[in-house]
Design goal:
By secondary structure, this protein is an alpha/beta fold. It contains 8 helices and 10 strands. The structure holds NADP nicotinamide-adenine-dinucleotide phosphate. The site of NADP nicotinamide-adenine-dinucleotide phosphate has 25 residues, from α1 and α4.
């Protein structure tokens, strides 16, 4: 499976690429708005890299890992280049307040909005991963939601490569819960000075 990580120069994209390179996968390409930054990050991580618009072509899965508030704009900018390729949305809409981190919206999700922008299938997941845990190869469970079973299979497979237990969490509308859970985890991290992930119990 060839994977393009859009925004692969950031904390999360770097963590994904670092781990995938470490387990010997040579089919990862990291993207940036700046082709030189994409290439230098790739060189540093031992993968391929370049401009976002270029790296999303001819891959099996696009991971949209730009800064969350740039997710929709980036999806729109890359829609033509991505074409019908499946997209994994890892973003959460969050609100940082004095009282703590809160979900950024009362209804819907970023992933559902991305699905209205791009032409291929969209799945959502990895929101509960901490970059630090990804690098360690122990990110916890990966709850993946989406309608398209082939796209979901790719995301579940990627989760397993990263050392996670991939779990099918139903249709894309459930991304509302996955994205909302991120604020819960971030408050927990602040309170306990941790990098928490999630693990479901009771599964076979
Ligand atoms: N950090 C984590 O532990 C973690 C865990 C789970 C999920 N996530 C999700 O992963 C995504 C990336 O998180 P992150 O912490 O890696 O974010 P980040 O480091 O702040 O940003 C990632 C990349 O986004 C690109 N970017 C920044 N502003 C942009 C803009 N206006 N338009 C287009 N691209 C822009 C930048 O790449 P270039 O400047 O090179 O283009 C940057 O390196 C977010 O959606 C986040 O919610 C993060």
């Amino acid at each position: 499976m060839k994977v393009a990580i859009v925004g692969g120069t950031g904390a999360f994209g770097r963590a994904l690429a670092t781990r995938l390179a470490e387990i010997g996968r040579d089919d990862v390409v990291v993207g940036s708005r700046d082709p030189e930054r994409g290439r230098s990050t790739a060189e540093e991580l031992g993968v391929a890299g370049g401009r976002n618009q270029e790296v999303v072509r001819d891959v099996d899965l696009v991971v949209l890992a730009v800064k969350s508030n740039a997710t929709l704009e980036t999806a729109a900018e890359l829609a033509d280049a991505i074409g019908k390729t499946p997209v994994l949305c890892v973003a959460s809409d969050l609100r940082f307040t004095e009282a703590g981190v809160l979900p950024g919206r009362h209804q819907g999700s970023l992933a559902e909005e991305v699905a209205r922008i791009v032409r291929g299938p969209v799945v959502s997941g990895f929101q509960s991963f901490a970059a630090a845990n990804v690098v360690q190869g122990d990110p916890g469970d990966a709850l993946i939601c989406g309608e398209d079973s082939d796209a979901k299979t790719l995301a579940l497979e990627l989760a397993e490569h990263l050392g996670a237990r991939g779990i099918d969490a139903g249709p894309l509308a459930n991304s509302r819960a996955l994205e909302g859970m991120t604020s819960v985890i971030l408050n927990v991290n602040r309170r306990y000075k941790a990098h928490a992930g999630i693990r479901l119990t009771g599964l076979p």
